[in-house]
Prior knowledge:
Blueprint: E1 7-12, H1 19-31, E2 36-40, H2 46-57, H3 62-86, E3 90-94, H4 97-107, H5 112-122, E4 130-135, H6 138-148, H7 159-175, E5 180-184, H8 189-207
Parallel strand pairs: 1-3, 1-4, 2-3, 4-5
Bound molecules: thymidine-5'-phosphate.
Amino acid sequence: MAQKACLITLEGLDGAGKSTHIDWISEFLRSAGVPLLCTREPGGTPLGEELRSMLLAHPMHLETETLLMFAARSEHLHTVIRPTLARGQWVLCDRFTDASFAYQGGGRGLGAARIGVLEHWLHPDLDPVRTYLFDVPLEVARERLKANRELDRIEREDAGFFERTRAAYLDRVRSDPQRFRVIDSSQSIARIREDLEQDLRALVAAHGPGAPS
Ligand code: TMP
């Protein structure tokens, strides 16, 4: 019997390389026998995906942006994340509340306290068991992004925005070092996978199928 279904989240600046590893992480967990749902924020529900399209396209006030991120998260928590965890299935979520602390709290300058109020409202009792923060120097992230495709509204922000966003992510790590693993995303893919594999194995041993009750 699984001990505890885990919420695992992936974070990082746009262009930090997290999407390169999502499929690999989910394959690894599934092949270890972990029942898993992969999802993302903003998004993960029909309403959340509509809110995502608006968030990434329309200019809006910072408070509106923050509240829409949390509105999408509320729907996601109520209809997907909590019911899935309650069934004993793990959830791998591409971004979660740390992204609001980093982007709206840090990048946009709203501050951590206001985000903390919304976090406390929505999920005072639920934190990811593990968060992988894919971290690269800003210039590397910017180069990777530009090479990819047309940028959305948030990706088009200036270097100062992403410096503040990265600093806010690193503040989150300092405030909860047990939960975070910072992945140096400028390393080779093979090296990153070695690091991920070691940590995922430990998580599965502690919480996965066959873990001691
Ligand atoms: P993605 O492209 O990694 O899926 O992320 C979509 C964008 O949304 C990305 O630029 C980060 C941003 N974002 C926020 O600004 N606040 C949030 O709370 C979340 C979840 C994402």
